[in-house]
Amino acid sequence: MSDDLLGSTSIFLCLKLPVITVVLFIQDWWNSTSFSNYYRTWNVVIHDWLFYYVYQDLLWLLKRKFRSAVTLAVFLMSASVHEYAFTMSLGYFYPVMFCLFAILGVLLNFAINDKRKSPVFNVILWTSLFIGQGIQVSLYCQEWYAQIHCPLTEVH
């Protein structure tokens, strides 16, 4: 009985997950004119999880005060998890992504808000994203090269 239930549930999930995933990811993040809209629509699953389980819980704990501080806390948590993933995959700690995400991402999130609707802000957003990715790739490649070809030597 339990095998049948497990099997039918697995088949149901395998058939329904692609549909659910497509629905959750079809949002026009490429047309965003603000960083806050981009962050909300880029990865809807992660945004919704952070919103419902971190942001709203922190707001509830703080009696709906300090919204900006709660937003900052969510950014720092997300930046820390991203940096942890990079550290584990690369094998060294080099907090470029954390600095760009937690500092510049937060500043741009508050500076270029949802009130900006002009396509000019979409160009600014994409230019900023391309520059940020270029900085990250350049610095991580440079550090990767340095880790391989310039190992640290201990001085006694």
UniProtKB/TrEMBL annotation:
Source organism (scientific name): Aquarana catesbeiana (American bullfrog)
Parts of the chain that traverse the membrane: 12-30, 92-112
Subcellular location: Endoplasmic reticulum membrane
Residues forming coiled coils: none
Entry's Gene Ontology cellular component terms: endoplasmic reticulum membrane
Principal subcellular localisation of the protein: endoplasmic reticulum
Family statement drawn from the similarity comment of this UniProt entry: Belongs to the membrane-bound acyltransferase family. Sterol o-acyltransferase subfamily.
Keywords: Acyltransferase, Endoplasmic reticulum, Membrane, Transferase, Transmembrane, Transmembrane helix
Keyword Transmembrane helix appears in the UniProt entry: yes
Entry membrane topology: Multi-pass membrane protein
This protein's name: Uncharacterized protein
GO biological process: cholesterol efflux; cholesterol metabolic process
Entry GO MF terms: cholesterol binding; cholesterol O-acyltransferase activity; fatty-acyl-CoA binding
